[in-house]
């Protein structure tokens, strides 16, 4: 019985180690190939999960290979902490991303987002002061609106049939309610009578690549929606990881118990 549970435990930790290496590699890839503050919201959780999982799997492999009870106790403790941490993160992610999404505009390829669509915590963390300036800078550098303006002969009908990402919807065009006239993807004409509604986003729009609507509240809402989507995706991955860690934790307890029995009991009475 000891040999069977130890073999299963060892193989599960091999799988956990492979997951940790893949997670760390993904985080390092994002840092090397994006290197912008826009991606930190996903990079940092990936790095934390990867490092923690790697350490836990390494302890488990050493405890299984050398059959050291102290390592298995350490493993059980780390696994228990990881279970609690993943559950806490999933609960936190649910709380800060449980507001309604933006309102869809019928027949158009985008949504527009409002202040009430997001929790106060998300808004305070990502749309205020220095944090927003860094994100804004990276959006400009990444040229997130470039793909929308590749066809300079595109008419308004074809333009609105495109599928906009939340960031493109908020940052690359003036809000629909402003009533601006479409000339091309990055050039809009304000009505002679002014915007149809009094809203600061309408006056903040500029027909230049480094301005556009990057200073608009709609752009901040688009970024928050993108962060919300990334956190939800990470929460799904965490749920799968949580189920696997609970399985490995249970196996570690069986392996430790069998090893203790093997070293303290007579062999005739041990399974």
TrEMBL record:
<dbReference type="GO" id="GO:0009734">
    <property type="term" value="P:auxin-activated signaling pathway"/>
</dbReference>
<dbReference type="GO" id="GO:0005886">
    <property type="term" value="C:plasma membrane"/>
</dbReference>
<keyword id="KW-0472">Membrane</keyword>
<feature type="transmembrane region" description="Helical">
    <location>
        <begin position="6"/>
        <end position="30"/>
    </location>
</feature>
<dbReference type="InterPro" id="IPR018499">
    <property type="entry name" value="Tetraspanin/Peripherin"/>
</dbReference>
<feature type="transmembrane region" description="Helical">
    <location>
        <begin position="42"/>
        <end position="66"/>
    </location>
</feature>
<comment type="similarity">
    <text>Belongs to the tetraspanin (TM4SF) family.</text>
</comment>
<dbReference type="Pfam" id="PF00335">
    <property type="entry name" value="Tetraspanin"/>
</dbReference>
<keyword id="KW-1133">Transmembrane helix</keyword>
<feature type="transmembrane region" description="Helical">
    <location>
        <begin position="72"/>
        <end position="96"/>
    </location>
</feature>
<dbReference type="InterPro" id="IPR044991">
    <property type="entry name" value="TET_plant"/>
</dbReference>
<protein>
    <recommendedName>
        <fullName>Tetraspanin</fullName>
    </recommendedName>
</protein>
<feature type="transmembrane region" description="Helical">
    <location>
        <begin position="234"/>
        <end position="252"/>
    </location>
</feature>
<keyword id="KW-0812">Transmembrane</keyword>
<dbReference type="GO" id="GO:0009506">
    <property type="term" value="C:plasmodesma"/>
</dbReference>
């Amino acid at each position: 019985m000891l040999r069977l549970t130890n073999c299963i435990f060892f193989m599960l930790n091999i799988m956990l180690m492979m997951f940790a290496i893949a997670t760390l590699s993904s985080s390092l890839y994002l840092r090397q190939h994006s290197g912008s503050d826009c991606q930190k919201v996903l990079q940092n959780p990936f790095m934390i999960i990867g490092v923690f999982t790697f350490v836990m799997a390494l302890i488990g492999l050493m405890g299984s290979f050398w059959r050291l009870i102290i390592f298995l106790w350490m493993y059980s403790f780390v696994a228990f902490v990881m279970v609690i941490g993943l559950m806490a993160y999933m609960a936190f992610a649910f709380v800060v991303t449980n507001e309604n999404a933006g309102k869809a505009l019928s027949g158009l390829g985008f949504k527009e987002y409002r202040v009430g669509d997001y929790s106060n915590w998300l808004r305070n963390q990502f749309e205020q002061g220095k944090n927003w300036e860094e994100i804004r800078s990276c959006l400009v550098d990444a040229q997130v609106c470039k793909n929308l303006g590749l066809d300079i002969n595109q008419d308004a009908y074809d333009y609105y049939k495109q599928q906009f990402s939340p960031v493109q919807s908020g940052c690359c065009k003036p809000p629909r309610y402003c009533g601006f006239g479409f000339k091309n993807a990055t050039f809009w004409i304000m009505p002679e009578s002014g915007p149809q509604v009094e809203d600061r986003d309408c006056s903040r729009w500029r027909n230049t690549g480094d301005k556009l609507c990057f200073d608009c509240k709609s752009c901040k809402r688009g970024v928050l929606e993108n962060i919300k989507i990334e956190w939800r995706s990470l929460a799904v991955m965490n749920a799968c990881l949580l189920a696997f860690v609970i399985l490995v934790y249970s196996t570690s307890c069986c392996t430790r118990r069998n090893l203790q029995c093997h070293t303290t009991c007579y062999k005739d009475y041990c399974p």
